[in-house]
Amino acid sequence: MKLFFYRLFRVQKIRNAFWSLLKHYDIRYFVVSIRYRFLKKNMKFGNYENESIGETTVKHNLSAFNIPRAAFGCGGRMELLIYPLVGYYRKNRESIKILVVGCRSEDDILWLKSYGFTNTFGLDLFSYSKYILIGDIHNTGFEAGSYDVVLLGWMISYTKDPAVVFKECKRILKEDGLLGIGLDHNPKQDAEGIKPPRVNTLNSTQSIKKVLDESIKHKVVVEYDHYYSDDDRCVVISKMLPG
Questions:
Q1: CA 234, CA 149: separation in Å to the nearest integer?
Q2: Which pLDDT band, with edges at 50, 70 and 90, does 13 fall under?
Q3: H/E element holding 114?
Q4: Res 7: pLDDT
């Protein structure tokens, strides 16, 4: 019996060590790209005719797989949503249920798992992985209060109705749950207008907060705008409030 538990302990240590390695971008990139190569034959698509979804959304995101560093990692932009969670949840991360919307590949999911958030899944309009559920964030069909965290990982630009997305996220989040939103800022948008695949005017934390304030009761816990390089990124993380 002692030998059995010793072996079980050793297996658990090896498993934890493997997950921890996935914190490193190059190792995670290797793992997710190899997995995609073998699993892409399983690609399935949802049959959605929701007019709120941008017409080029699926085509645009599938095209990223032709540029692997875009499909797997996107320059590490999800760190702006993941690292605050690592600081926010110091203990019992395995009990935190996370949904990453618009994940496209397994990268974001395995990254979160590497920090101990083992109960993490993705949601997208297509999937090749058991970790990525097929569904529409405008109307998920999930039970109310299903998740502790919902991350809208650079997908909010693809919806014509962000308010509906925010309301659905609040519905499926637990009270005090966190909603994280990532967005690339386009400094030319005011002059040139919206260009596909974008289908709404959100372009800063201020614009995100305005729609949030009009849609749901929440409290901003993280706000970040970066306008000083080619990677102009905006992030808002809000805690859900009753009502």
A1: 18
A2: low
A3: helix 107-114
A4: 45
CA distance 149 to 177: 6
Contacts 24+ apart (CB under 8 A), 217-225: 217/170, 217/241, 217/242, 217/243, 218/170, 218/179, 221/84, 221/88, 221/178, 222/84, 222/180, 224/80, 225/185
208 phi, psi to nearest 5 deg? -65, -50
Which residues face 120 on adjacent strands? 98
Instruction: Kindly state the tokens that stand for 104.
Output: 């496209």
- The model's pTM is 0.93
Residue 53 CA to residue 32 CA, distance in Å, equals: 27
Torsion of CA 49, 55, 57, 62, to 10 degrees: 90
**Alpha-carbon gap, residue 12 to 5, rounded angstroms:** 10
- Which of the four CATH numbers 3.40.50.740, 3.40.50.300, 1.20.1730.10, 3.40.50.150 does domain 2-240 have? 3.40.50.150
Residue located via tokens 């079980």: 8
Per DSSP, the residues of 37-89 read: HHHGGG-EE-----TTB-TTHHHHHHHGGGSHHHHTTGGGTTHHHHHHHHHH-
d(CA 136, CA 12): 35
Positions of E strands within the chain: 44-45, 98-101, 120-124, 126-127, 132-134, 147-152, 173-184, 218-226, 233-240
